Amino acid sequence: MEVGGSDSDGREFKNADEMWREQVGDPSKKTDWYHQGVGYWQGVEASVDGVLGGYGHVNEADVHGSEAFLKTLLSERYLNAGTDGHLVALDCGAGIGRVTKNLLIRYFNEVDLLEPVSHFLEAARENLSSESHMSPDIHKANNFFCMPLQEFTPDAERYDVIWVQWCIGHLTDDDFVSFFKRAKAGLKPGGFFVLKENIAKTGFVLDNEDRSITRSDLYFKELFRHCGLHLYKSKDQRGMPEELFAVKMYALTTDSPKKVYKARSKGQANRPRIVK
């Protein structure tokens, strides 16, 4: 990525390569990058306000925006979604299960959660086990994986949707590409990714506190190309406080856009960020 960027202390970088060489240029630095990132979240309270960085009040707007986007995608990609199709989702960076509880479990028969911070995942297990659903045998949280994205490989063709929200900024560019290339094999035919993330106006912004990077729209699109993914649809999140980064949702597919699939039969961590 040739566009320059900055860090949360105001330091300027000529390009992303310069920044990454400094941050993770050798194996020990890369280990420290991930260790410090998880370490930051290990010190955060397992609550909606905690995982949303003190902005718990944006939860409703976030879920509403995500639901509108997801409903459109399901209606376009699956002709019989929500009827006789058995749909399975993976919630990446699941945190305390906020997205699963408020959104995914209402649209998918099974949801697996992937989260590297153990006390968040335990809170998710408790939150979802205590949740009363009209059809608990049909809609349920199934597997709880305590593992970081860069180490996770999904089972082949398990998921209709892999939802990745407010966590991909912790991955280096190389691990970003590696994760999506591995995760593609976890999608069922016709399945897709939803990536929802903070967006920098240009280039990137490195957060020195939690060891993450906020990328621009162009930066993301360049990485999508390296992943071999097609941009099916995108949408801006509305209703966020002005002091926060803009938030964008991307639907990504492994096939060319405009292909509609019929769902198979039954037989078959997270937060907005302040602009710095």
Automatic annotation (TrEMBL):
Biological role stated in the UniProt entry: Alpha-N-methyltransferase that methylates the N-terminus of target proteins containing the N-terminal motif [Ala/Pro/Ser]-Pro-Lys when the initiator Met is cleaved. Specifically catalyzes mono-, di- or tri-methylation of exposed alpha-amino group of Ala or Ser residue in the [Ala/Ser]-Pro-Lys motif and mono- or di-methylation of Pro in the Pro-Pro-Lys motif.
GO biological process assignments: methylation
Similarity comment text for this entry: Belongs to the methyltransferase superfamily. NTM1 family.
Recorded GO MF terms: protein methyltransferase activity
UniProt keyword annotations, A-Z: Methyltransferase, S-adenosyl-L-methionine, Transferase
Any Pfam family: Methyltransf_PK
One CC-aspect GO term: cytoplasm
PANTHER family: AD-003 - RELATED, ALPHA N-TERMINAL PROTEIN METHYLTRANSFERASE 1
InterPro entries registered for this protein in UniProt: MeTrfase_NTM1
Organism for this UniProt entry: Carya illinoinensis (Pecan)
CDD domains per the UniProt record, alphabetical: AdoMet_MTases
Record protein name field: Alpha N-terminal protein methyltransferase 1
